[in-house]
Amino acid sequence: MLTDLGIRLPVLAAPMAGGPTAPKLVTAAGRAGSMGFLAGGYKTPATLAEQITAVRGDGVPFGVNLFVPNPATVSEEDYRAYRDELLPAADRYGVHLPDAPVEDDDHWAAKIDLLLADPVPVVSLTFGVPHGDVVSALRAAGSMVVQTVTSAPEAQLAEEAGVDALVVQSSAAGGHSGTFTPTRTPPEVPLPRLLRDVRADTRLPLIGAGGISRRADVAAAIDAGAEAVTVGTALLRTHESGTSAPHKAALVDPDFDATVVTRAFTGRPARALRNEFTDRYDPIAPCAYPAVHHLTGPLRKAAATARDTGLIHLWAGTGHRDAREEGVADTLTRLAGQD
Length: 339
Prior knowledge:
The chain is about 35% helix and about 15% strand. By secondary structure, the protein is an alpha/beta fold. The two termini are about 25 Å apart.
């Protein structure tokens, strides 16, 4: 798979929605002999199209990641209860929280239309498997389709849908879990074991993800059956990332000494640095993405502007302490053992 795309490094740059995966990060990965993925999540189709054009102009291999609609609806009562709990923090920053649940599909159809009209080398999908017709159409347009899975049963569903390869994501990964069943937090299975479980049921190419921060992690994943790995947290402090300054600082701050999987920020399980927000709100947060994402969004944005790391979603995998302030190329080649 990698050689078909002209990739020589078995360490790829994962898509990180919300800002960290800037186009220049994707370009830097490609120029290093790797490949990065533009994060299509939360972007308008127009913005995504602009970023595709920009990266394509740099002449590097790249992919685009999309969130597959997999909404978890919330009752008005549960939504109101969570909103009421958040109001004191929102009042602190003078922000208004949505009065009613906001449900959307992140412009799914429009983004698929964009990728069919203007195909990219690779399309990666997360949160769920789309209808097989969508996969077939993307492949017919010339794109390789890669599906994120968190278990062997999910891998079987993805293979049945006709995808070309799998990103096998362990629970150690930072940010959102790609689980198809967000009401259940994925078990903490080490990535090598998860890769072996998936490999036992499929011959599709595998890409390992989750908790990879050192060369030994890369080697262990490849020994377990992966063709390559993809890293996100390891790139958060790089020069080319769009990670906010307070987020970058928190990754190496001794006060943030643990990560937790929480639904408090978005209503889907996601791994972040433990902070005031996760401690206070995770026990009461409903499993309701994207309603919770839209509910907490104004508060998180205000907290980020104020550099209030107690209320920011500080996405981070278990290996966050190994993230370095250096160039993307340096991180990827170092992890691949080619520095």
